[in-house]
Amino acid sequence: TGGNLGKGEGKKYVRFLADTLKPYVDKHFRTIPDRTHTGIGGSSMGGLISIYAGLMYPEVYGRLLIFSPSLWAAPNIHFHAINLEEAHDTRVYIYAGEGESNTMVPNIKKFQQAIQNQGSAANVEFDLSIDPNGHHNEARWGREFPKAIAWLFLINQVKKIKHN
């Protein structure tokens, strides 16, 4: 890891989300619990842990919302070691701004390519949104959020409505 990030507990955290929190929410609230209706997302370090959660638990998360992920913090992630066989019908929305850093856009393109090179590309659909004026901040992410949610969750609903 880079800087003073400390010792990461990402594996425990994503296990808690998938094995404890999500089942609790599904039991106590009206949800559609299948993976097609379940997503995880975040920005910056939240984007990084959301990638990790989505790849470690493809049977749980079918939608990933990734804004400006801090891939620099974990440069040795081996995406090729992740088994995406259960990742059928997975959508990944990635946003980044060219004004964030010299490495942000190349890193997310490298991530996307690593997933597509696994041969499971037919199982994972990407929408890559690069903002030429984008910076690493909540205002940019807030403007992008409605577009991301619509693409991740509503695109099938729109198609169904048009066909009926």
Automatic annotation (TrEMBL):
SUPFAM superfamilies documented for this protein: alpha/beta-Hydrolases
InterPro entries in alphabetical order: AB_hydrolase_fold, Esterase-like, Mycobacterial_A85_antigen
UniProt keywords, alphabetically: Hydrolase
Pfam families in alphabetical order: Esterase
GO MF term set: hydrolase activity
Keyword Hydrolase set for record: yes
Domain of life: Bacteria
Protein name as catalogued: Alpha/beta hydrolase
Organism: Okeania hirsuta
